[in-house]
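Listing 4. Sequential folding, example run.
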Amino acid sequence: MGKAFVAVIVVLVLIALIFFGQYVGVRNTLVTKNEAVKAAWSQVDIVLQRRADLIPNLVETVRGYAKQEQTVFGDIAKARSALLSAGTPQQKIAANGQL
């Protein structure tokens, strides 16, 4: 009876170690993927910021050629401000669509 009890305990410990190893592996995978998503969104933010930074130059260039298009400039300024003030990815996508 003593040897059987020890064998059962050893099997249970091995099963627990396997489950713990699986847990750690899945958790590390999720953390890695979460960091990859954050890095990707960071790149999106950089591109959107760069695009928003280029707009004032474009507006100044076009303003010299088309004084009658003031409404368009106002709309572009509003869209740029919406893009820069967007907080969530959904808001950024919507603001980018307006721009």
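-- end of first protein; second protein begins --
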Amino acid sequence: MPVRRKANKRRSGEVEAWAIYFQSGHDFFDELGSLGLTEESARPIAEETWRRIGADVITYLDRFYDGYHPPARPYWAEAEFGPADTRKRRPFTRASR
């Protein structure tokens, strides 16, 4: 039986906060404020963050629009920074040091 992947709870708030910004290029609902960011301060770190959590953001948005007409793709971040990193990340363990 395959192992069920557990969601990273620490990262889930970060994914939700960045989702609308990565979808549209604007923080319409001030969700980045929960991370201590403004739209202006988020722009310089947006590409690095997209590379790190972009695949999780796409998964979140797919679930968010489940049952509704989703917005057109590519999302703003996909057009601006390229496709999200879909490589499997090896989880950190003390044994891997």
